[in-house]
From TrEMBL:
CDD domains: GPATase_N, PRTases_typeI. SUPFAM superfamilies: N-terminal nucleophile aminohydrolases (Ntn hydrolases), PRTase-like. Residues 2-239 form the Glutamine amidotransferase type-2 domain. It comes from Lachancea lanzarotensis. Keywords: Glutamine amidotransferase, Glycosyltransferase, Magnesium, Metal-binding, Purine biosynthesis, Transferase. It comes from the Eukaryota. Its cofactor is Mg(2+). This is Amidophosphoribosyltransferase. Pathway: Purine metabolism; IMP biosynthesis via de novo pathway; N(1)-(5-phospho-D-ribosyl)glycinamide from 5-phospho-alpha-D-ribose 1-diphosphate: step 1/2. GO terms for biological process: 'de novo' IMP biosynthetic process; purine nucleobase biosynthetic process.
Length: 510
């Protein structure tokens, strides 16, 4: 799972990079693994800065100075099976045809056949395990088929039609064609989010933005915005001050299925995705969770509701209100714990959970506590939290998850864990309670969770992580391939690629 962003400014003498960096900070929660910005300046020249780490570390002042041009895209990477610590940061670039850049949020699930196609049919070399590199090369191969000196919008839409025809999976993408345009497109099921907006300048001309979450558009005063439709693409010309963007429904909307995980955990609460307020879904999750807990416990059985910061807070507070039980901030989060480096000969004395969270004894001592979290994945964090609550003196610990039990792979870009490492894998709720060491586990039912999120127009969601049924299906052998890559990546974490790459024609200070 990742964050993508693109901005095209009407005034081509302006520099877009500072605003892209600002936008990256609004999307940082979507990926802290790597960050990249690429811009397009005069004569179609491309400039880039990308590297492993958070945006503020990668984009230093001096590096930003090299990013010239009025149009650019950015990418924040979340680690997925195909993109380990030692693979390249995005955007990805190919020089032929025309110079194409792409930033991809999502995951393709027919990579085996795409790889074969690249090799045997179009003879393009793929140098990483990343499905995003495949997607970019597929797009480039489709553009190449026109075999033209210069492309126009129709050619691009036509090439995207080829991409849609061959790709299976979730993808929300921003890209650029050197000197020509910024483009955005979204998969036919709308699994991953993408929004488009405009900002009117005093002279009446307009700037344009593409972003993974509405919060970026709003913060940058792109007041008029909407979701890109599933199967829709947009082309924003480089001279967008004179020429308006062009939209096209490239393929028909398949059944629209936004990923429920965006609402449970991933997106910022102040974002609205596909017309659904993330914050309000989380309030609703708290209410439904309380109602289902009351089927098994009475409110007199619980003394206090405590949330696991930060995502679960909204849900926990509303759950407490519904239960009419006091809500307490029993765990305090240390905001300054980033990545910590464990030296080879240094034993990990304190678990990463304990470095991040501290339990306040006064809120647990002698109490029957309901701890609310957004989800339970491997269970290692939940286990530690339950231990901490007990050590702080809780007499009973109930543990509630705003999401249903996670028993399957997440295959569209939020790579959670090997299924066998999921605590609920092949286990009943009772067995999970025993494994976690708490008095009882409560899971939101899938039906309730869907009720929390659905609207008049969207009633179905991508829920494969809970059911094992994926909206696009998966190609034979794909899940095995996923596990193989995970194992491979696990073995080479320390072998990180060069920290920064500012290579791409980056000589702006001539
Ligand atoms: C935001 O854009 C609107 C026009 O859409 C304009 O009236 C307003 O002044 C802008 N706000 C800021 C803070 O620039
Ligand atoms: C699931 O659990 C049962 C016992 O609880 C065990 O017999 C079975 O082998 C497990 N299946 C898998 C696929 O692990």
């Amino acid at each position: 799972m990742c964050g993508v962003l693109g901005i095209a400014l009407a005034d081509q003498t302006n520099t877009v990079a500072p605003e892209l960096l600002d936008g990256c900070l609004f999307l940082q929660h979507r990926g802290q693994d790597a960050a990249g910005i690429a811009t397009c300046g005069d004569r179609g020249r491309l400039y880039q800065c990308k590297g492993n780490g958070m945006a503020r570390d990668v984009f230093t002042e001096s590096r930003m100075a090299g990013l010239v041009g009025s149009m650019g895209i950015a990418h924040m990477r979340y680690p997925t099976a195909g993109s380990s610590a030692n693979s390249e940061a995005q955007p990805f670039y190919v020089n032929s045809p025309y110079g194409v850049l792409l930033g991809h949020n999502g995951n393709l699930v027919n990579t085996l056949s795409l790889r074969r196609y690249m090799d045997e049919d179009v003879h393009r070399h793929i140098n990483t395990d990343s499905d995003s590199e495949l997607l970019l090369n597929l797009f480039a191969a489709e553009l190449e088929k026109h075999n033209k000196y210069r492309v126009n919008n129709d050619d691009i839409f036509h090439a995207l039609e080829g991409v849609y025809r061959q790709c299976r999976g979730g993808y929300a993408c921003v890209g650029m064609l050197a000197g020509y345009a910024m483009i955005g497109f979204r998969d036919p099921n709308g699994i991953r989010p993408l929004l488009f907006g405009e900002r009117t300048r005093p002279d009446g001309t307009k700037d344009y933005m593409l972003a993974s979450e509405s919060v970026v558009l709003k913060a940058h005063n792109f007041t008029k915005f909407r979701d890109v439709a599933p199967g829709e693409a947009v082309i924003v010309p480089k001279d967008c001050g004179r020429n308006p963007p062009e939209f096209k429904q490239v393929v028909p909307v398949n059944s629209i299925r936004p990923d429920l995980f965006e609402y449970v955990y991933f997106a910022r609460p102040d974002s609205v995705l596909d017309g659904i307020s993330v914050y309000h879904t989380r309030l609703e999750m708290g209410i439904k969770l309380a109602d289902s807990i009351l089927k098994e416990l009475s409110r007199e059985d619980i003394d206090v509701v405590v949330s696991v910061p930060d995502t679960a807070r909204t849900c926990a507070l509303e759950c407490a209100n519904r239960l009419q039980v006091p809500y307490r901030e029993g765990f305090v989060k240390n905001r300054y714990v980033g990545r910590t480096f464990i030296m080879p000969n240094q034993k990990e004395r304190v678990s990463s959970v304990r470095r991040k969270l501290n339990a306040m004894d006064s809120e647990f001592k002698g109490k029957r506590v309901l701890v609310v979290d957004d989800s339970i994945v491997r269970g290692t964090t939940s286990k530690e939290i339950i231990n901490m609550a007990k050590e702080a003196g809780a007499t009973k610990v109930y543990f509630a998850s705003a999401a249903p039990a996670i028993r399957y792979n997440h295959i569209y870009g939020i790579d959670l864990a090997d299924t066998k490492q999921l605590v609920a894998y092949n286990k009943t709720t009772e067995e999970v309670s025993v494994e976690l060491g708490c008095d009882k586990v409560f899971y939101q039912s899938l039906e309730d969770l869907i009720d929390c999120c659905k609207t008049d127009t969207i009633s179905k969601f991508e829920v494969g992580v809970f059911t094992g049924n994926y909206v696009t299906g998966v190609e034979d052998g794909y899940l095995q391939e996923l596990e193989r890559m995970r194992a491979l990546n696990a073995g080479c974490k320390s072998d990180a690629k060069a920290e920064f790459d500012i290579g791409l024609y980056n000589s702006a200070d001539f």
